[in-house]
Queue: 3 jobs
Job 1
Amino acid sequence: MLGDTPIETQMKAPSPLLAGDESVREALAGQDKPWWLRLGRWQRIGVIALEFLVIAIIWEIAIGRFELVSPIFLPPPTRILEGLIELFSSGEIFPHLRISAYAWVIGYAMAASFGILGGFLMGGSKVFARLGGPIIWLIYAAPWIAFQPLFAVWFGFGVRPVIFIVFTAAVFAVLFNTAAGVQTVDTALLRCAAVFGAGTFARYRTVVFPAVFPFVLVGLRHAVVIATVGLLVGELTSTTVGLGALVAIKTAQFRIGSAFAVIVLTVIFTTVVGQSVAAAARRLAPWHVQEGGG
Amino acid sequence: MTDLATTAPTIEDRLAAVPELGGGGRFRALTRNYGWQVAVALEFVAALLLWWYFTTVNPILPRSFLPPPSQVWEAMKGLFVTGTIFSHTLFTLQNFAAGFLLATVVSIPIGLLMGSSRLIELFAAPPMWAAYAVPRVALAPLFVLIFGMGAASKVALVFLMASFPILINTMQGVKSVNPSFIRVGQVYGGGRAEIGRTVILPAVLPYILAGLRIGVAGAIAGALIGEFIGSFEGLGMLLARAAFNFEVSRALALVAIVVLLAQGLMSVIQFVRKRVAPWDESTWA
C-alpha cells in the first residue's frame, strides 16, 4: 500500500535506514562541491587570516615602497603601527584617552539608564506610549549629527556637549530595543500570570523582565558602536581634547599614521566592548537566541 | 522595530483587551485612539505655549539657551528673505545627490555579487566587515585634507557613509532568497536572467530599499559632518557658524530646516518603497 501514502509522509519517515541514506547522499554531494564550500570553521578562519595578511603586505609594498598613493593620505600598516607606538611612548594620548573615556562612560551610562527606563514606559504604559511616543519619534527622526553645533552652544565648548551627543546618539538604540522587547512579550504568558493572580509587580518580575532582558542587551550592544561614533562626532569639532580631537589634530599636522592609529584604537575598543556585551548576553540570557553578528 | 514602537499594543493595552480583566470592546478602543490623537496635538500646543511662556512672560530660561519662538521665527524668515538659505541648501543637496547616486550605483552590484557567489563572499566579506567596523566619521578631517574644502570632500564622505548600508542590505537580501523558489524557477525552465528577474529581484528589492533608507540617513550625516569640519558653503557650515557665533535662534531655525529636509528625503524613499515593492509588509530594519 505504499502508493497510498502521500509523498510527504514517505519523505519524513523517521527510518534509520533513510537517515543513513541521507548522510551517504550528503557525503556524496560534498564530493562535487567546490573547495570553498567544503571549508571547516578553522580552515575558513585560516583562509581569511591569510587574506588579511596578503592585503596588508600588498598595501605595505604598494604604498610604503612604490608610493602608488601618497603615504600622507593612506599610510601603510607599518606607519600606523609606528604612529600607535609614538602616541603611547610619548604619553601624548593619555589626556585625550582620559577625557574620551570620561565622556563615553557618562554618556553611555545616561543613555543606558534613560533608554531602559523609557523603553519600559513606552512598551508598558499606554499613556506614555501614546503621549511620549510621538515626541521621542520626532527627536529620533532628526539626524542627531545636526544637534552637535547646538549642543556646543548650549553646554559650552568642551567635554559636556560631547557627553550629550554620545547620549543622544546611543539612547534610541537602547530605548527602541527595550520597547520592542516589552511589546513582544507573549500575551498568553501575561494572561497566564494574571490568571494565577500575579499583580503588576509580580507580572513584571516573572514574565516581562526575563523576556525583555535579551532585547535590552541587544540594544546595549548596538549602543556601544553608536556611542563611539557620537563621541568622535562630538570631539571632531569644537573641542581640543579627546580622541576625535586627536584625529583632527594629527590630520592637520599631516601625521596621518597617528590619526589612523587612533581610529584603529576606537575599532578595537568597540569590538572588545561590543563582544563582551554579546558574551554577557549569551551567559546571562541563554534562553534567547542571539541575532546575527555585524 | 520602528513601526512597532508607535503602533504596537503596550502591555496595558493587551491586558485591557481581555474581557475577564475588565477590557472593553473594539469600538471603545477605536474611539480611544482618536482621543489619543487629539491629546498628542494638545501636547504639542502645550509645549509651544510653555516654550513661549518661559522665554517671554516669565523668562527663567536664558535667551542664550533658548530664545522665544518669535525670535526663531524671525531668524527663519531672515534666512529665506535674504535668500542665503537657497544656495546653501542647493550645495548640500547636490553633494548629497551625487554621493548617494554614486553609492547606489557602486554598492548594489557589489552587494548582488557578494550575495550570489559563495567564493566572492568568502574573500570579499571579511575585509568589508572590517572596513564597516571603522567609525567612518573619523575620516572626515582626512577627506577634507585630501579633497579640499569644496564639494569633492563632501561627495566622497556622503558616498562613504551611504555605501555600506546599501551594500550589506543588498547582500543579505540575495542570501535570504528562498532556494526552493529558485529551484521552482529552474523546474519551470527559467534561465538565469529570467530567474533573476522573476524570483531574485522581487525578493531583494525590499532589502535594497531598506538599505537605501539607512543610506539616506548616513548620507545626510556625511554631508553635514563634512561641512562642519571644513567648508565655505552648505547648511552644515551655516549651522556650525551660527553655533560658533552663539546665534542660537539662527541655529535652531537651521536645525529645523535640516530635520525637515532629512524627513523629506526619507519620505521619498518610503514613497518609492510603497510604489515599487508594495508586497513587502515587513517593518524597516
Job 2
Amino acid sequence: MSVIAETVRPHHTLWGDAFTRLKRNRVALAGGIIILLVALGAIIVPFVSPYKFDQQDLNVVLHSPSHGHLMGTDGLGRDVFTRLFYGARTSLMVGVFAQVICLLIGLPIGAFSAYASQRVDNLIMRFVDVVFAFPDLLLIILIRAILGGSIYMIFLAIGLVSWVNIARLVRGQILSLKQRDFATAARAMGGSSTYITLRHLLPNSLGPVIVYVTFGIPRAIFAEAALSYIGIGIKPPTPSWGTMIANGYENIFAAPYLVLIPAVAVGVLMLAFTFLGDGLRDALDPRLRR
Amino acid sequence: MGALLQVRDLSTSFYTQDGVVKAVERVSYEVANGETIALVGESGCGKTVSALSIMRLIAEPPGKIVSGQVVFDGTDLLKLSKADMHKVRGARIAMIFQEPMTSLNPVLTIGRQITEALEIHRGMKQSDALDEAVRLLELVGIPQARRRAKDLPHHFSGGMRQRVMIAIAISCQPKLILADEPTTALDVTIQAQLLEMLHNLTKDLDAAIVLITHNLGIVARYASRVYVMYAGRIVEHGPALAVYHDPKHPYTEGLLRSVPRLDEPRSVRLAPIEGQPPDLIALKSGCAFYPRCSQAESQCGEESLDLVEVAPGHYTSCRSVLKGERR
C-alpha cells in the first residue's frame, strides 16, 4: 500500500493536456509564435519607431526600402514599417474583438435554441438562416451607415454578420451532447434542464467553438482589410492593412512594395491563425487523446 | 409491510416511423423497503425502458408513458410536476447506468461530479461537499481519494468509473437505487467486487435496489424476488429460489438451461432458446413467447393470459404450466 501511495502520477488537467499536445505540433507552434511576434510588434511600435504613423515627410515620398525607412515610404512620405505595425494593431483588434462579439451573441443564442422547445428552436434557427442568407457586405454597409464609422463599429458590424455560424455550431453540439449517456446520468442525478445545459453540455461544446473562433479571426482580419480597401473600413489616417493596400495601389508601378508588404502581412497573419486553429482542433479532439 | 415502490400497469411506447413500439406493456412490480429485486430478460425486452419510465427519463418524443402508475413512498411519480420530479431524481431514487465509460461528463472532475448532487439536493457548501465526496470515494474503494477527486474521468478505468457512479448514486442516501446492468461492461472479477460492495453499502443505507440484469448468477446471489420480462411484459415472477429451482414459465426454463453450470459435466451442451425475440411493433395478440415455445398449444397463439398465482407468491402467465399444475 505504501508503495502505491508513493507513486504519484503527474496531475493533468483537461486544458493542460491539450496544451501539451499543441506544443508537440510544430506548425501550430510556429503559427502561435508568429501571432505573438506580430502582437508584440504592434504593442511596442510607438516606443521603438522614430516615426509616427501619420507623420508625413514630403521630401522622401515613395522612397524604396533603405536604412532610414526599413520598408520604404508611401505616397505621402510616411514610414511603411511604422504604419505596418500600427496596422497590425487594427487587424489583431478587429480579429479578436469581432470574434468576442460573435461569441457573446452566438453562444447564448445557440445554447438557448438547443435548450428551448422545438417550436422556439425552429423560430430562432429560421431567423439565423435569414441572417446567414443575407449578403454580408450589404449588411455591413447597412450597419456602418446606421452606426457610424468608428473602429468599434467595425468590430460590431463584422460580429453582427458572423455570429450565426457560432450559434449553429453551439446548437448542433449541444443537441448531439444531449443524447450522450452522461447527459442522461446528469438528469437522473436530478439536474434541471437549465443546469445541465449550462454546467454539462455547454462546457463540452467549447472545444469545437474555440477552434472555430481561431479560424474566425483570420476571416475577420480579411473582412476588415476588404472593407478598408473599398473605403468603408478604418478611417484614415489610422493605418490598416486594407487601406495601405488600397493607397499603395495608386502607385503600384512606381513602388510595388507598397502593395506587396501589407498584402504579405495579411497573408502571413491569416496563415498563422489557420495553422494555430488546425493545431488546436487536433489538440482538443478527445479522440486523439494519447 | 408497505411497498416502497409500486409499479402498476406501466406501459411505455415509442412512436417511430415504422409504427408503435410497445417497449413496456402493462408491467407491474413492487419493491419493499431495503429489498433487492431483479428484473431479468434478454436484450430489448424492456428492462431499461421500465427503469427509465420510473425516473421519467424517457425522451419525449418519440417515447411516451402511455398508462400506469409509479407509486413511490405514497405518491404517484407520473403525476408530479417537473420541479418536484427534480427533487426525487438523485435524492430519493438514484440510478446507476450500464456504461461507466460514457456516463461521466468528460470535462468535469470526478470530485465535481459527486459534489453537484450534494449541492443540489443536500444544500451543502462547496468545501463541505468536497469533504463528503472524498469520504464517498474512500467508501467505494478508491485510493488516494482526495487527490483522485481532482482527476477527470478519462484518468480512470472502467471499474473505477463504475465505483464513482456508485458513489454518486449513494451520495444523497436514496431510498431506492435503480441499477441498470451495473456490471455488464466490466470483467467478471470486478463484477463480483462491485456487486458485493453495492450490496453492503445499500444495506447500511437501508436502500432498496432494482437490479436490472441478464446475468442469472447475479440474481441468485442478491435478489429476494425475481421478475422475468419477455417482449415488454412480465411473464413470471416469484421468490428468487423458487424461480430458480422450479421455474413456472418455459421462457425462464429456457434462460436457465442456456447458462453454463459448474456442477454439470462439461460434456453437457447448453440448450439455447430457438428463434429470435419478437418484433415489438408487430406483436400478435397471443402469448409473445408462442413462436419459440416448445410446450405451446394452439390456444396460446390466440390469447395471452394475465399473471396467475401458481404457488405462494409465484406467478406465471403460461397456459400450459397452469394446466399442468391443475392436473
Job 3
Amino acid sequence: MTRFILIATITLLLGACAQYENQRGVDVTWDPAVLKTMSPGQTTREDVLRQLGPPSQLIALNDESVLYYLYERSKGNGLLLLVYNRFQVDTQYDRAVFIFDKNDRLTEYSSKIHEPS
Amino acid sequence: MSPVKTIIHGVCMSLLVMVTGCTQWQYDLGTTLPANSHSAMTRGALPSDVLIQLGPPLRISSSELGYVMAWEYWRVNEDSLGISLGVLGADIFSVDWGNAKVAGEFLIVAFDNEHRLSGSGYAQWDNRSGGGSAIQPFVGIADVVDINDLLQQLPQHEWGGTLLGPLPRVLNSPSRPDSGSTGVQQRGTPTGVGQGSLEMQ
C-alpha cells in the first residue's frame, strides 16, 4: 500500500501538461466581406494591396503576377507523464491568392480561412 | 518489509521512472484534400474551376509553359523510447530508440499560358520515414530520428530574406524551387540535388 501511494504521489508530482501556439505570417485581412468587393477584370493590384496590405510573397508568373497572403498557425498540446509523453501539433494555413494579368487586373482569386474545430 | 527497505525500493523505482521515457509526437500540416479531387482534374479546365474546388494552393510557381499550383497535406509521427541519466544531471549514458512515420498527399496542377489545365499529378503515401537506435555511454550527441526537414515553414514566409542566407543559397537564389519562379518542391526533398545542387549542402 505504501509503495502504491509513493508511486502515485511521484507520478502526480512529476506529471505535467503543456499547451502552446505559434503564429507566422500576415494578418488575416481577407475575410469574405472584403473579398465581395473584388471582381475579376475590374479590381486592380493596387486595390488589393490597399485593402489587404503587403503580401507574404509576390510571385512573377511570366507576364502575370501573384499576391500570396499566408497566415500559419500551429497549436500544440502535450501530456508529460515522465514514462509516457505525448505531443500533438496541428498546423493550419489561412491563405489567399490573387492572380493579375499583365495590365495588373485581377484574373483569378481564392481564399481559405480555417475554421477551428 | 522494513521502512528503510521501502524507502530504498521507492527511490529505486522513482529513479527508474525518471530515467526511462517514451515520447510520441504527432504533427498535422494542413488539411486533407477533398475526396477524389485529383480525378476531377480535367484537361482544359480553368484555374477558377480548380480554385473553387481546392481553395488557394499552398505552393505556386511559374513554369516555362505557364504556371503550376500544388496542394499538400502531411501527417508526421515520431515515436521515441529511451533511457537517459540527463534528468539526474549527468550527460552520460543514454539508450535510445526512435521511429518516424509519414502520411500525406500531394496534388500538382499545371496550367498553360492560355490559362487551361494542361496536366496534373497526385500522390498519396503512408510510409515509415526513418528511425534508429543508439547506445551512447559517454556523450549523447546523436539523434536517432530527424524529421526537421519535413516540418519547415512554407517558403512564402521567407520572402524578403532570400538574399540574407548563407552564400551558396544566395548565389543559387535565381534557381531555388521555393522562390516562386522556377518550380515547386515537396517537403523532404533531399538537398544538394537538382536546382539545389549548387547550394552544396
